[in-house]
């Protein structure tokens, strides 16, 4: 088997960061090249075969196109392959080297390298649609240890939730990637737009890498399109952007989702105060890294931790919906209450429309982090020894303060405060609007797509993008762009698999693939268990 | 597990009938202390299984109520195992009181304990993994099979 891991140096331009040079990600409009988009095409919502031919754009016919190439495309292609679709019927259009590239980039910079554990359930396995054997079982077998099994048996009552190591998830995905011949379906390039075709189906316009095609664009003509483009981009808080732009200081005030090793390096070089902002899992991770470094190198790092919303206890609208919280944090095992991935809350949200749905999302949304015994111990020690202080507040101003330090002014419940810190690590992760992504913006402007109650892409229960139907073709979407729909946990491993299942079921009803009933499912699982290629 | 009430009941009926039924068929002849012929033994063990199933549907309503106090609206794996105690105790008490129809002669405790505990663990293990192999939709539908 070809191994990717060794050369898996993650590109740092994978995710569009604020302030990053957008030219690299945009369509350069240099010298004219044959087979480019014409004004007629750009301005028309529905394209005819003749119009595409007039533009000189070559057409490739394939029944199913997935746009994105991340884990969303991967699990969908995996599902379809298991449902009997041959590789020749699927094309994944992507700029990524492999499906977990973006995900690995984000987890790595936010302090989850391959050896650390993700915030993901044992049975949420992107390499295994059945979730059996789960990561815990596989880890127990590989390590010849009962510990993961015991943990998963008594979680979350007597132990923290079991979560897999990032490296375990990536390595097992890589195995499945080869088992289903995923590379045979991949076409490299940047997708510019998806437009409906007169007569049914869609055209997906790909800009291939330079010097790989005789034309500027290639059109993929397909009955079905699946859009899984991931995060439209990251959005940093305005105060962070303003500080950096005004003072040209990009090293002291950082967002945790961008590379920020320099802060840890400077804290190792000399003692200092660091300000951490945010109450989510990334803040937990960053605190762990700061305290691990403190312990490992005998550092004297002082940690100030500011929460915009400081949670002091259990909270929620009524006795039936109360989330635990303490010391500033809201506690929750995973991104959402667990039953959104299959139980009561999944079933409840599926029936809700409009504001009612948005209101429920609001109740179980909000920033939160899991309770982990090791984190609790570290923070307890920090509070006791006086080097960790958490408080409610908001940053009101930041100024450089000589020798690489930053003067920070805060508004707190006890009045204004000032502090001089060596660095500010902002752990608030805001997602950009879906229209920041070119393909999604085009779907909204020309594809008939609309927005859901949370302002993201409006998809049906089958994950078909509402308003984009081009009979007999259908356009589906999965992943974070669809948050706010009938199923809440979309931006997770299991959420992507649930979307893939809904899409595959819909396609099976349409006759494109086989239905995954008990016999086929068991037979396919047995092939998976033996590592048999399909 | 992430059950809905409907899913709980369906899963209970399916697993106790299929897995519990097969297991009872296999283990009954070797249970200790039961006299009489095979038909008599099977009558006794399948009555215990049926009693567990019928009472279990009632238990599911109680578990569902308890689940409402949980923020995650989940049912931890451990709860699925530990409920062997209350359910087993209730069935045993009813057997001792002689109120289970069709079991006038009583059941030896050792035989009951082995049958009940092994069936329970087997059903619990299947529910926490292998069940997903033939029924790939089951875990996303709150345990519903239909």
The largest sheet of chain A has its strands arranged as: 11-21-12-13-18-19-20
**Largest interface summary:** A-B, 43 and 29 residues
Count of helix runs of chain A: 16
Radius of gyration of chain A: 24 Å
Give the fraction of residues assigned to helices of chain A.
Answer: 25-40%
- In terms of structural class, how would the helical and strand content of chain A be classed? alpha/beta
Shape of chain B: globular
- Taking pLDDT < 50 over at least 5 consecutive residues as the criterion, the unreliable ranges of chain B are none
Largest sheet of chain A: 7 strands, mixed
CATH architecture classification of the largest domain in chain A: 3-Layer(bba) Sandwich
Mean pLDDT metric of chain A: 92
**What is the CATH C-level name of the largest domain in chain A?**
Alpha Beta
Helix content of chain B: 55-70%
Sheet with the most strands, sense and barrel status of chain B: none
* Fraction of residues in β-strands of chain A: 15-25%
Protein name (chain A): FHA domain-containing protein
Keywords (chain B): Membrane, Transmembrane, Transmembrane helix
Transmembrane segments (chain B): 12-35, 41-66, 78-100, 106-127
Helices, strands, pairings?
The complex is a heterodimer of chains A (534) and B (146).
Chain A: H1 39-43, E1 46-47, H2 49-54, E2 59-61, E3 64-68, H3 71-82, E4 90-94, H4 101-109, H5 135-143, H6 147-154, H7 166-179, E5 186-188, E6 190-197, E7 202-207, E8 218-222, E9 224-227, E10 234-235, H8 238-247, E11 253-255, H9 261-269, E12 273-277, H10 281-297, E13 302-307, E14 315-318, E15 321-323, E16 325-326, E17 329-330, H11 344-349, H12 354-364, H13 373-385, E18 388-400, E19 406-412, E20 415-421, E21 423-426, E22 430-431, H14 438-446, E23 474-477, H15 493-509, H16 518-529
Parallel strand pairs in A: 1-6, 2-8, 3-4, 3-9, 4-5, 9-23, 11-21, 12-13, 12-21, 13-18
Antiparallel strand pairs in A: 6-7, 7-8, 10-22, 14-15, 16-17, 18-19, 19-20
Chain B: H1 5-27, H2 38-67, H3 77-82, H4 84-96, H5 109-127
Helix pairs in contact in B: 1-2, 1-5
